[in-house]
């Protein structure tokens, strides 16, 4: 069996989907990021504890679904924002959260 | 490692923040409680119930209570309770004594004796102690919602770590079983495009926690092969829960790009019925060249579950030789779709208004989509089952290079392609005309502006004259053309 390899014909790898929109394939991390920020803003402004907790969850989900090409600064900033929303709601009102039912 | 740290730091901060925010609240509340207790004790002696008996008993313990303040308070407490008991007992005794006394007397002489018993009963009514509302209590139990939330977060983090590790193990298992075959066929196995020299990295390129890439190049008959391991999102708990409703499986997608001379002109696809229907709708080349509905694969010896989309019958006969049929029949459960095309340009692009489209760039490609056995519950051992499919891929590459249409087939294929191009041009004709018109107007406007912007009146005049002369020439040319056409028509 002759060797079918041809080192002379090597072509370098070019990341395929940089031209086509990567968000078209999976918009989840971007949506979750946006939701997280909205919820944490609501939690901070309206002093709603459950909003702040949902924001923490959203930022975790966004992190889990993120692409490696996305920079970590965005992730860290949404984490920090949601955690600060939770902490602020509890500092202002230390009573436990009451369930909606 | 980086991602582990990213999770740990915020989680730690969160856990630390909660007790800090609660701490201050605790102290204030505690102080209040103690004060209340003291208050009760101080005023206990002034309650009406113990008035008569307490007055007598108090004088007795008061000289004893002089020595120290702390034991005095305690003694008072004890004495108070003792007094109560004594008082109650005393009261009862006196009451019963009275009752006996009065019963000896004449009933008619005394009225309202029965009424004396009533106050006693009201004293004996049980005290109803209401529970303190949850938000005023000071115990960990009242924070059960928060504890639930934190537990949920911890569960999510645990699932993330477990899912990530499982995906990583599956990818590594796949690579280990296929490494030898790939290295014997390709000069470059594994490249992320960033290193200066074209040296095999020899490992998968991790794009995501659930997507792994591998680029192989340096072989006869093809430019390169991109393998994508698209696993399920095991690292995302939401996805895991969604999959309990809708089962899905891991997929391996392989795309082989070929040189111009490596493939003849044909479009062909085979796969499950569902995937064929979907591809025919979505893919640009399949919708244009394979207009008929997918045919059942049974005609060519394939299982019933598979169907075929082809440009012409000759192509199907050429591709479906015995070995191919053998491969596909044996591994029909793992094959999602196989797509050979010389006009591959990806899925149909949504045309935007007012944008003239050129014909999209095409590339000669072979695309394979395989399902990993296990339907989600895959173990690393299952990856070995995909090795024969990779053999099929290599075989297809060599086969496509050798496959040549005969004369009739070639003529038909060329006609098809010309037809598609013409259709496309017709559709965009109006758009292209508009675009050309706007471009011409833009040019004229730009020139006029330039003339206006010229400060020197001399130069302005000269430029204007030049523009006028150009316009004249154009009009003359058009007139000449019209005359020529008229002459020809005659």
Determine the strand fraction of chain A and express it as a percent band. Answer: under 5%
Assembly type of the shown chains? heterodimer
Helix content of chain A: 55-70%
| Total strand segments of chain A | 0
Low-confidence stretches of chain A: none
Characterize the largest beta sheet of chain A: strand count, sense, and whether it forms a barrel.
none
Number of helices of chain A: 4
Mean pLDDT of chain B: 79
Structural class of chain A: mainly alpha
Q: Describe the global form of chain A.
A: rod-shaped
From the alpha carbons, calculate the radius of gyration of chain A and give it in angstroms: 21 Å
Span from first to last CA of chain A? 74 Å
Percent of residues of chain B in beta strands? 5-15%
Ranges of chain B where pLDDT stays below 50 over 5 or more residues in a row are: 25-38, 54-95
Mean pLDDT of chain A: 85
Q: How much helicity do the residues of chain B have?
A: 55-70%
Q: What profile does the largest beta sheet of chain B have?
A: 10 strands, antiparallel
The number of distinct helices of chain B, counting runs of at least 4 residues, comes to 14
Overall morphology of chain B: extended
Radius of gyration of chain B: 46 Å
**CA distance, first residue to last residue of chain B:** 83 Å
Protein name (chain B): PAT complex subunit CCDC47
Region (Disordered) (chain B): 47-81, 428-490
Organism (chain B): Eleginops maclovinus
Biased composition (Acidic residues) (chain B): 71-81
What would your notes on this structure say?
The complex is a heterodimer of chains A (101) and B (490). Chain A is mainly alpha-helical. Chain A has helices spanning 22-25, 28-46, 49-65, 72-92. Chain A is built from 4 helices and no strands. In chain A, helix 2 packs parallel to helix 4 (72-92). Chain A starts with 21 loop residues before the first helix and ends in a 9-residue tail after the last helix. Helix content of chain B is 57%, strand content 12%. With 490 residues, chain B is α+β, with helices and mostly antiparallel strands. In chain B, strand 2 and strand 3 form a beta hairpin. Chain B is built from 14 helices and 10 strands. The radius of gyration of chain B is 46 Å and the shape is extended. At the A-B interface, helix 3 and helix 4 of A face helix 1, helix 6, strand 2, strand 3 and strand 4 of B.
